[in-house]
Structures are given as C-alpha cells and as structure tokens.
Amino acid sequence: xxRITKEKALDAEYxxxxxxxxxxxxxxxxxxxxxxxxxxxxxxxxxxxDAGRPTNIPxxxxxxxxxxxxxxxFTVTDIRHLLKRHPAESLKPLIDAIDELNDSxxxxxxxxxxxxxxxxxxx
Length: 123
Known about the structure:
rbstp2171, 55% helix, globular
C-alpha cells in the first residue's frame, strides 16, 4: 500500500454509518450514527479516573447518546432528563445499538465492571 500525503489524509472524508433504532420507550425510532474520535473523546472527558475506570456513568451515557442520535436532535441536557425519567431496560435497545455501531466493547466492559463494583459496595 502506498504512503499517503498529508493533504490526502486531511482531505479524506469518512462516511459515518447510520442506523435506525426502535426505542419503544419513546414510541418510535431515532436515527443514530457512528461517533467520530473527537465525539468519543469529548464524551469520555473527565468521567474516568487515572486507572481508566468510569467515575460518572450517567454523564458518560448522556454524552454518548446525545452525540450518537442525529434525528431528532437532542442535547446532553435533554438526554440527562430522559435518563432520569426512564428505567434502564427501556433505553437498552438504544444504548446497545450505539455500543454496537461504535465497537464499544471496551467501554461496555468498563461500565459493567463499575456497575458490579457499585453493587458490591452496597452489600
């Protein structure tokens, strides 16, 4: 494979994959997209500790969901509101689709580990 030039790299356009996701809790579907590296980084900013463990899962989820949904247009504040009003399982199809579209196995594993640690702390 040939080495590219800086200009070619800067001019290259990536078509982000989109997907329609049925969210019964919303009474319809939303259109989501694969997140850019910038969007993933902004979503993660300030919500992980030095060991890489999430410290604010609801904020991480709100940021990722708001960035991923392109139709209708939700703000992070809108999503925070929705996360407080709906049970977790009702938004699972949406969160699973975002994770799948963004190959977020590592992020999902970190969230599950943090949730398990949180549950163990309650015992």
